[in-house]
Amino acid sequence: MADDNRVPRRYCAVRYPKRRGFAAGVSAERARLLRQSANKWLNGTTLRYWFFDKPKRWTAADAQKNVVREAFGKWKALGIGLEFTEVDKRAEADIRIAFEQGDGSWSYIGTDVRTRRADPRTMNFGWSLTGDPVEGMNTAMHEIGHTLGFPHEHQNPFAGIVWNESAVYAALGGRPNHWSRATTYRNILERIAPDSVQGSRWDPDSVMHYPFEAGLIEKPARYRAGLTPAGGLSARDRAWALAFYPAIGEATTRRLEPFQSVALAFAPGQQADFRFDPARTREYEFRTFGASDTVMALDEMRAAGTRRIAEDDDTGVERNARIKARLRAGRSYLLRVRLHYAQASGRTAVMVW
Ligand SMILES: [Zn+2]
Questions:
Q1: Ligand 1 centroid distance, CA of 228 (Å)
Q2: Cβ neighbour number for residue 100 with a 10 Å cutoff
Q3: Considering the entire predicted model, what is its pTM?
Q4: Which residues in the chain come in under a pLDDT of 70?
Q5: Ligand 1 centroid to residue 91 C-alpha, Å
Q6: How many Å lie between the centroid of ligand 1 and the Cα of residue 150?
Q7: Ligand 1: centre distance to CA 211 (Å)
Q8: Which domains are assigned to the chain?
Q9: pLDDT at residue 1, as a whole number
Q10: CA 266 to ligand 1 center in whole angstroms
């Protein structure tokens, strides 16, 4: 073997839309809690994904798509409450996946995929996912992890990594990534705010952690010779996926009746799910009450899965979430309420009339 037997790593560079600021009146504690669960989807949401069929440079053979399909299946197999469905119409898709070779692998983070932009892709795979099948699957699971709202684990401020910064800039500036210093900083060296990571411990085996070659990490000393995550979903990846997206079923879904307010006594980040079977066809209004920040959505239950009818987000603003919709007797609906912040616990309620 030659001395220089390093395989140049290709890395994922996440994309961010403009950061959202909070109004002057929003307290530090409220902003902290909002950031912690920001970008996570409402649990129970059906995320529809679609592969580009044109232009040619964004398309790929089925073998590539199958890796991505299988990776969605692995996340779902954890038993999470999110659903993934492949659709064949672009207009129906939340997640739009391309395979532009040489453009890097990346995704937006969580609900940021819904931000409108000139570039319609929300996820790209910039190298073959089948050349090294294990690496390919890890890449697909990593990008899907971003789409579910998980950031880079090596940027966890609790990691305490001391980088050899000039070596990192040099390594990423060269083949095959050719990153600018800004991209390297944003995706490796910059530490994520402590309130936007999961928990307070570093998990070097997370699927959201990059592998690093020797010479890039100075401390902890045991990683000077390089760091390679175990591959696949770590125990903590599984735990956090299930914490944000626990299984939803009959047992966890309460009934909602018109004019009966239901107190929501749960912690920030938690979600309540209600089933509503309207007795009459008419317009209904759903609302939350109290000094709280919630994201609320109304889904219709259908044989082929749920279909979102409306969604309202009152996080960081002085009003309450509210949905008005004409609902039909004989159909069933699901109301989902995710609490992001409450001034006083148990002082939030939801009602339909
Ligand atoms: Zn990434």
A1: 15
A2: 17
A3: 0.86
A4: 1-9, 16-37, 195-200, 342-346
A5: 26
A6: 9
A7: 11
A8: 28-244 (3.40.390.10), 250-352 (2.60.120.1050)
A9: 29
A10: 31
Render pLDDT for 84-111 as a digit per residue (tens, 0 to 9): 999 999 999 999 999 999 888 999 989 8
Residues in the chain: 353
Half-sphere exposure of 303 (CA within 13 A, CB side): 0
Ligand 1 center–CA 281 separation, angstroms: 46
Identify the pLDDT of residue 12. 78
CA 331 to ligand 1 center in whole angstroms: 41
Q: What is the per-residue pLDDT for 270?
A: 83
